[in-house]
Amino acid sequence: MALSTLINNIKSKQGLRSAGVYTFTNFFTKGISFLLIPIFTNPKFLTPADNGLLSLFSSSVIFLMPFISLGLTQSTSTDFFKLKKKEFKDFFTTGFALTIITTLLSVTVIYLLKDFLHLKYGFPINFVWIVPAVTFLNFCSEQITGLIRNNNEPLKYLGIGISKTAVELSIALLLIIVYKFGWMSRVTGMIIALVLISGYALYYSVKNGYLFGKIKMEYIKTELLYALPIIIMQANMFVMGSSDKFFLANDHAILGVYTIACTFASAIVIFSTALMQYFSPKIFLLLSADVVEYPKIRKLLFYYFAAMAGSLILFIIFASFFYHLFINVKYHEALKYIYFIAAGYFFWTLASILYSFLLYYKEKRKIIVHSVLCMIVAITSYCYFIKKWSAFGAAIAVMVSYFMVLIITIIVTKKYLKNIFQAKN
């Protein structure tokens, strides 16, 4: 009786509809990609080596993101609720000016390192400009989706998600199937879709008065100071989530098989990301109140944790069936270790929502300490397990690393967790 009452109370809330739209959008956009995995893993169109090179490309974008964005996506998410509209306009404009400069600097640095990157990892020469360009366009895409989410406009979020996915994948399929364009088919579709979304981001930002404010030195100084812990934090994100790909990069075929397993297991992260689109703004809004209602935050965390536990259970039950159904046999070797990856991703989804408290309060010292500790754990795990068992070892390292990250995150956020879980209703 109590459970049915709880479910009815949840359904009656308008927020659940918004959460549903965010969740559907993320699952639709990623789900379409999952349905196309049989094509993307078919050696007739893309070989394991092609998928390995695509993994290297994606990992390079993730690596470069903190140096181009300087933590501005995180600052925008929190300062949107803290600053007055005129102040936010100046802050937002200053941020875009900074990212244009860092993008140009990134092109220069990668060009100077192009020979080393080619010899060490097999980087194609066109990565020199493609990686920084896609990283900047990804930043623009994240900014517009963040603004729409903060403005609580789920239907616009839905429209952008579906449009981006439709353009990207339709172009990629055309180039893969008809023109046999190989791995560049996916990259080309991605670039065109991101250019269109960035164009809409410019329109939306101008229309809502977020752009063409003053470029203020005070915001540059503040963001550069804030950028250091954010760069370290996102460097940690890269080490945790993508450096395993570089450890396996000496064999693009093995990397391709492992990457598809990571992509498949990332269904758990996709679900988490979808939920976070709803939960994070709600938590930030509650934290920004004059009197923080900790019981409401506790309730949000409870719903989130329960949903993530359910997603892991469903993955364990159905992963093997869907892998055999959709994934080419050349990639079935990964079934030996995919559950380790899924468990690791589950631990990460729990840590990520707790970590958002450090971002909201801009706990620079704790962010740095947390990030450094996590990087040490990840690099140590990857070096040991990958050297010992190659891709199987990488999967074990993912599980071990993310479990340790969860423990570290609980420790560094214990002050906030104490307030949340000891507060009386």
Task: Characterise this structure.
Helix content is 84%, strand content 0%. It has helices at residues 2-11, 14-35, 37-40, 48-69, 72-82, 85-112, 114-121, 127-150, 154-178, 184-207, 217-241, 243-247, 252-265, 267-287, 294-326, 338-360, 364-412, 414-422. The chain is mainly α and 425 residues long. The chain is globular and about 60 Å long. The model is unreliable at 1-12 (pLDDT under 50). The protein has one domain (2-422). The chain contains 18 helices and no strands. α2 packs parallel to α9.
Query: Considering DSSP H and I runs of 4 or more, what fraction of the residues is helical?
Result: over 70%
Radius of gyration from the CA trace? 21 Å
Give the uncertain stretches in residue-range form: 1-12
Instruction: Identify the overall geometry.
Output: globular
The first-to-last residue Cα distance is: 21 Å
Secondary-structure-derived class: mainly alpha
Please state roughly what percent of the residues sit in beta strands, choosing from under 5%, 5-15%, 15-25%, 25-35%, 35-45% or over 45%.
under 5%
Summed over residues and divided by their number, the pLDDT gives a mean of: 81
Number of DSSP strands?
Answer: 0
Helix and strand run: HHHHHHHHHHHHHHHHHH
- Secondary structure tally, helices: 18
- Provide the number of structural domains: 1
Main pleated sheet? none
